Amino acid sequence: MAKRRCQECGELYERSFRRCPVCGAEGGRLIPRCPQCGSRLPNAYTRRCPVCGAALAHFGWARTLAKIALALMAALFLGATYIFAYVPRLGLPEPSWPTPTATITSTPTATATIATPTRTRTSTPTRLPPTSTPTAVVTYIVVAGDSLGLIAEKLGVSLEALMMANNLTDYMIHPDQVLIVPQGTPTPRGQKTPTVPPAAPLTRIAIPTSTPKP
Asked: 68 in a domain, yes or no?
């Protein structure tokens, strides 16, 4: 274990002891004594020995250190004042300190937007040209004994129209054959077309004129 040496009697003892086991010095520190009688002094600031009454002026070193410390502090303060006050006048660059700049932040304001009604063009329905409605197809089934002439006469259509409607090139037909009847204004059988007689020629009638008498 580490040991320390007593500053009073020079004895070595363990560091765990608070006092020297030989002379009783506290912590091995140097205890102030009177230079005249050797008695222990209460503290280092005692001006007079309590045993023999000798003046202890040489123990005022603490006050001297305090005065020196105050003088050093005053000198440091004056030096700092000189540096900050007179250095700019000597042409030296001034210490630049960052200046805080105020930043203006714009707060967004809510603006009410009014929806304007927009006119929409509505498409007008366009009239389509009238379309002819398909007419129903009329058919005729050929029976035994029929011929194209008899069928055309029976249905009231012409023979040429009947052949064109069925794409026939000859007069041959057979029973159960389906024929398309052409649509048109049928001419009723047994009805004669009236004929208008020619108008009689106009004759001139002589009107007698009266002659003046002499």
From this structure: no
94's CB contacts (< 8 A; 6+ apart) are 87, 88
Q: How many domains does the chain fold into? A: 1
Within-domain flag for 159: yes
> By residue range, what is the domain housing residue 153?
138-181
HEC profile for the chain?
CCEEECCCCCCEEECCCCECCCCCCECCCCCCECCCCCCECCCCCCCECCCCCCECHHHCHHHHHHHHHHHHHHHHHHHHHHHHHHCHHHCCCCCCCCCCCCCCCCCCCCCCCCCCCCCCCCCCCCCCCCCCCCCCCEEEECCCCCCHHHHHHHHCCCHHHHHHHCCCCCCCCCCCCEEEECCCCCCCCCCCCCCCCCCCCCCCCCCCCCCCCC
Three-state secondary structure call for residue 165 = helix
Q: What span, in angstroms and rounded, lies between the C-alpha atoms of 80 and 61?
A: 29
Which pLDDT tens digit goes with each residue over 132-186?
555 677 889 999 888 888 898 888 888 888 889 898 888 888 899 998 888 764 4
Residues in the chain: 214
CATH number at residue 159: 3.10.350.10
pTM of the predicted protein model: 0.27
Residues 3 and 18: beta-carbon distance below 8 Å: no
